[in-house]
Amino acid sequence: TVGCVAVDTHGNLAAATSTGGLVNKMVGRIGDTPIVGAGNYANSLCAVSATGKGEAIIRGTVARDVAALMEYKGLSLEEAAAYVISECAPRGTAGLVAVSATGEVTMQFNTTGMFRACASEDGYSEIGIWPN
Amino acid sequence: MGWAIALHGGAGDIPLSLPPERREPREAALRHCLQIGVAALQTKRPPLDVVELVVRELENNPNFNAGRGSVLTTDGTVEMEACIMDGNTKKCGAVSGLTTVVNPISLARLVMEKTPHIYLAFDGAEAFAREQGVETVDASHFITPENIERLKQAKEANRVQIDYTQPITKDMKKETPTADGDSQIG
Asked: Which residue of A lies nearest to B25 if distances are taken between CA atoms?
C-alpha cells in the first residue's frame, strides 16, 4: 500500500491511498483502501492514510477514528493517531500517516516497520522504516 | 500554521536485516516522492493535487505494493484499489478491482469529480476508465517477478501476506499456529 496526506498554509487537507492488497488474496476481495473512513479519510480537522491488514483496519475504522477522536474528544493529531494505532487495531496489523489542519504531522504503526517520509514548512523532515 | 506532508510505502514485518539492495531503492523513492510533494506545496498547488501527484509516483515504482508492483491474487492476477478524499468538502472517490489502469488514484479522483457516485469497482470501474480515456496497459505490466515468487511462497504456506511480511514455510506454520488462521503478520 502507498499513501499521502497533505495540508497547505490555509489548512486545506487531502488524503490519497492506493494498493494491490494482500499477497494470495481471494479474487474479488475488497480491502480497507477504498472503504472511506477505514484506510483513507479527510475532513476539516485532519487527513489520514492507513496501511496494513485491510480486514483489521476496516474493523477498527482506523482513519475515521483518528478524526473522531480529534472532533469529539479534543485530542491532538498525535494523541488521536497514537490511541488508534495502539487500541483500535491489533498489534502488527496497521500503520498510518496523518496531518492536521494546523500543520501537525504524525506517522505511527504497530507493525515492525513502515516505509514513511514527511516534511513540514518549519523545515522538519524525516525518512524512516523502523521505529526511531 | 504551515504546510505539511506525509507519505508511506506500506507497513508490515519489515526485517531489521533488510539488505541494502532492497532498502536503498525504497528509501530513494520515498525521498524522491517527498521532494515532489514539497515542491508542489511550495508552489501553492492544492493538497488534492499534491496527494494525487505523489501517489501516482509511488504507484509507478515497482518497489511498492500499488500500481506496477501490486501483489497478486490467488489466481496470479492483480486487483488494484485506490481512494482519494478532499477534507474541506468531504468529496471522495474510490475504485477497486482494477486490472489495467496505470494510475488507480487518478481514476478514483475522476470518480469523485465526474460521477454522482463515490465508489466504482471491477468491470464498471474499468469501463469508466476507458470512457474517461485514462492510460491503460496489459495487466502483465503490473506483475513483477518478485511478486510471482511471493505468491508462490504464500500459496505453499497457505497464507495471505501484508506488505513486506516475510514468507513463512509450512514447517514454521506448524510451529506457530495462529488464532484466526489468516494472520501472516509479525
From this structure: A115
Which active-site residues of A does the annotation give?
A: 1
Nearest to A2 among B10, B85, B165 (CB): B10
Cell 500503520 belongs to residue:
A95
**How far is B15 from B74, CA to CA, in rounded Å?**
25
How many angstroms separate the most distant Cα atoms in chain B?
55
Whole-Å CA distances, B96 to A4, A18, B67, B83: 18, 10, 12, 9
- Nearest neighbour of A15 by CB, restricted to B38, B78, B85: B85
ipTM exceeds 0.90, yes or no: yes
B129 CA: distance to closest CA in chain A (Å): 16
**CA atoms within a 13 Å half-sphere pointing along the CA-CB vector of B41:** 30
Contact predicate A38/A15, CB 8 Å: no
**Beta carbons of A24 and B73 less than 8 Å apart:** yes
User: If pLDDT is split at 50, 70 and 90, which confidence band does B168 have?
Assistant: low
- pLDDT confidence of residue B162: 74
